[in-house]
């Protein structure tokens, strides 16, 4: 299952394609010791610094970016969801520690956030950490949470000025207190932004989301506010954690690394979503791969069970 | 004389094909065999258009493919087969088309109950899964008769999802969970009043297990593979809850074109991914 820390640093390039080359070590000097914690011990580079000549991320003015060939702006999906799978495999294939995979994944994540802003996609939901991922070794989950916290701290101001609104879905009560405070602060600081709504699923389970929505309705039944037979799909949807957005249903779901399953992500919300399974591992998923996914989406016929339009 | 010889040759040919298929399944069975296969029967109308067939003929062709595929599944050793026969969303199609499908369903459900039918041959228990109150009355009654008539079969299970969507199933499960919980709370409140006991608020909260126990699909384990034909890659509100960790397979063939090779390919993919899927399932 994909676990991507949000170490969204300004100094990394917007295109992650170069990271698959053998000279990766030059881009990630902190990994020379090959220990799991190597990048964490060296700490994040200074905010705004340019590392090895790579430029910072560029959020162009809305509608000023020409779309890649073949894509049509009027058919752009409003909401894209991503399962960022394959970071650990990416690292193993290169003989690198797992942490490098997560860092490379973070670069890919930044790139996709930037592309979504520039292409006019309204909502991006990413599966950062599943409730099933707690069964990984504690040293790994602690490392990830640390990277997530540091990355969010570094990137928050930049995202705020770029017009990105951040929302968190999932059960954050299991996270450490400082991270909970940071997440709440990030949501509050960016609440009025409207260019891109970035929803990060942390300790999230699609089934638990549905259960908590049903529990809220059960409490309303108990309090006499509604009758059991009045429970309908609209009421359940209103209680799901994705009620923070006007577009709760993804139009397109992308899962990388060739695995073809949903893995307990947004189950209710994916009822009519077009699914796209990419063979690339997440750190290798760049503009070309994203363009291909959106192009595939734009060619599909969506009938919602009814007549062909 | 020639006619009799042709019949014998035809039967010999059929037996050889059947024998080779059983050999193939024996080889496949060396690896893990999926316990539950689910199918979204997509592409019937496109098939009819492709071959210039009349209204409804695509569905009839699809039914023939369905019977073959179910037979192959049970021969392979798959215990549960689920099919998405008719979605609640499909009621939005033209009334003539909906009526055509209802008529075909009624005809085929009644056919299921005949002695020589596949369900009796393979000892299949049939469930009709969905909001059956939405069906036309004759179809609903036939479905209930079929479920009752096959209730003693226990070799395999066939789950036919009609008037079904996953979101409707979840809403229904939530409604029933609340009604059950409310009834339990009321009766235990009466007992507490007389015993002056302490109140336990946590018992009032519905849990994941409550939802699952009220799902229409509670009679079967979660599917191992979900197959959607015609190359479309979406779930269309089918088994959203149950396919959380299920392998998805979307061959480009239209539903009436589906065959043994697609089943074999799906099973091989399942066997390749099986260790990972098992690890995911074992985590509580």
TrEMBL record, chain A:
Superkingdom of origin organism: Eukaryota
Which EC number(s) are documented for this chain?
2.5.1.-
Question: Which keywords belong to this entry?
Answer: Transferase
The protein's matches in CDD domains, at most eight in alphabetical order, are given as: Cis_IPPS (cd00475)
Q: Known Gene3D superfamilies for this protein? A: Decaprenyl diphosphate synthase-like
Cellular component annotations (GO), alphabetically ordered: chloroplast stroma
Task: Name any Gene Ontology BP term.
Answer: response to cold
* Record has Transferase as a keyword: yes
Q: Which cofactor does it need?
A: Mg(2+)
Q: From the UniProt record, which GO molecular function terms apply?
A: ditrans,polycis-polyprenyl diphosphate synthase [(2E,6E)-farnesyl diphosphate specific] activity; magnesium ion binding
Q: Which HAMAP family match?
A: ISPT
Family recorded in the similarity comment: Belongs to the UPP synthase family.
NCBIfam families the UniProt entry points to: uppS
Report what the protein is called.
Alkyl transferase
Organism name: Sesamum indicum
Automatic annotation (TrEMBL), chain B:
Domain of life of the organism in this record? Eukaryota
Q: Which Pfam families match?
A: Prenyltransf
| Keyword Transferase attached | yes
> What EC number(s) does this enzyme carry?
2.5.1.-
Any GO BP annotation: polyprenol biosynthetic process
Extract the InterPro entries matched here: UPP_synth-like, UPP_synth-like_CS, UPP_synth-like_sf
**Any GO molecular function:** ditrans,polycis-polyprenyl diphosphate synthase [(2E,6E)-farnesyl diphosphate specific] activity
Q: Which Gene3D superfamilies match?
A: Decaprenyl diphosphate synthase-like
Query: What are the UniProt keywords, alphabetically?
Result: Transferase
Q: What class of enzyme is it?
A: transferase
The Gene Ontology CC terms held by the record are:
endoplasmic reticulum
Q: Do you know which PANTHER family this protein is assigned to?
A: ALKYL TRANSFERASE, DEHYDRODOLICHYL DIPHOSPHATE SYNTHASE FAMILY MEMBER
Q: Which family does it belong to?
A: Belongs to the UPP synthase family.
Q: Which NCBIfam families match?
A: uppS (TIGR00055)
Name listed for the protein in its UniProt record: Alkyl transferase
Query: Which species does the entry assign this protein to?
Result: Sesamum indicum (Oriental sesame)
* Record lineage: Eukaryota, Viridiplantae, Streptophyta, Embryophyta, Tracheophyta
């Amino acid at each position: 299952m994909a676990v991507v820390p949000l170490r969204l640093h300004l100094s990394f390039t917007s295109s992650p394609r170069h990271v698959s080359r053998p000279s990766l070590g030059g881009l990630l000097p902190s990994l020379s010791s090959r220990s799991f914690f190597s990048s964490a011990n060296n700490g994040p580079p200074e905010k705004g610094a340019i590392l090895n000549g790579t430029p910072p991320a560029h959020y162009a003015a809305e509608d000023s970016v020409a779309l890649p060939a073949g894509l049509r702006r009027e058919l752009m999906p409003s909401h894209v969801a991503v399962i960022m799978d394959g970071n650990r495999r990416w690292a193993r294939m290169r003989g690198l520690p797992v942490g490098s995979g997560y860092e490379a994944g973070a670069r890919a994540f930044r790139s996709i956030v930037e592309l979504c802003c520039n292409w006019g996609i309204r909502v991006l939901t990413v599966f950062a950490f599943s409730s099933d991922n707690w069964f990984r070794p504690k040293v790994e989950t602690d490392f990830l949470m640390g990277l997530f916290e540091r990355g969010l701290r570094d990137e928050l101001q930049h995202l705020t000025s770029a017009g990105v609104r951040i929302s968190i879905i999932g059960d954050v009560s299991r996270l450490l207190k400082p991270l909970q405070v940071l997440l709440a602060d990030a949501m509050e600081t960016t609440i009025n932004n409207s260019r891109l709504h970035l929803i990060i699923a942390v300790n999230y389970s699609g089934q638990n989301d549905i259960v908590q929505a049903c529990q809220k309705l059960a409490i309303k039944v108990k309090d006499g506010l509604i009758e059991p037979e009045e429970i309908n799909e609209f009421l359940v949807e209103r209680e799901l954690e994705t009620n923070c957005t006007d577009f709760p249903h993804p139009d397109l779901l992308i899962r990388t690394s060739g695995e073809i399953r949903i893995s307990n992500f947004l189950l209710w919300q994916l009822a009519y979503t077009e699914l796209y399974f990419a063979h690339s591992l997440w750190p290798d998923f760049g503009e070309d791969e994203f363009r291909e996914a959106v192009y595939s989406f734009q060619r599909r016929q969506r009938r919602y069970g009814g007549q062909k339009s | 004389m020639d006619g009799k010889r042709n019949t014998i040759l035809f039967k010999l040919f059929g037996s050889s094909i059947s024998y080779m298929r059983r050999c193939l399944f024996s080889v496949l069975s060396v690896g893990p065999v999926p316990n539950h296969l689910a199918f979204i029967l997509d592409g019937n109308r496109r098939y009819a258009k492709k071959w210039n067939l009349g209204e409804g003929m695509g569905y009839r062709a699809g039914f023939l493919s369905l019977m073959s595929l179910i037979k192959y599944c049970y021969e392979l050793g798959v215990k549960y087969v689920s099919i998405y026969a008719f979605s609640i969303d499909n009621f939005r199609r033209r009334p003539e088309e909906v009526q055509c499908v209802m008529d075909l369903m009624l005809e085929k459900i009644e056919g299921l109950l005949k002695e020589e039918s596949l369900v009796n041959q393979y000892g299949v228990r049939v469930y009709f899964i969905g909001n059956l109150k939405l069906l036309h009355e004759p179809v609903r009654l036939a479905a209930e008769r079929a479920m009752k008539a096959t209730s003693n079969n226990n070799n395999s299970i066939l789950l036919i999802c009609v008037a079904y969507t996953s979101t409707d199933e979840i809403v229904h499960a939530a409604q029933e969970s609340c009604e059950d919980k409310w009834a339990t709370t009321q009766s235990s409140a009466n007992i507490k009043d007389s015993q002056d006991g302490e109140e336990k608020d946590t018992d009032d909260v519905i849990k994941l297990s409550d939802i699952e126990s009220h799902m229409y699909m509670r009679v079967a384990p979660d599917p191992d593979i979900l197959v959607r034909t015609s190359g479309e890659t979406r779930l269309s509100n089918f088994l959203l809850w149950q396919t959380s960790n299920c392998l998805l397979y979307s061959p480009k063939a239209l539903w009436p074109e589906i065959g043994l090779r697609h089943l074999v390919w799906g099973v091989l993919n399942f066997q390749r991914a099986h260790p990972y899927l098992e690890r995911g399932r074992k985590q509580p």
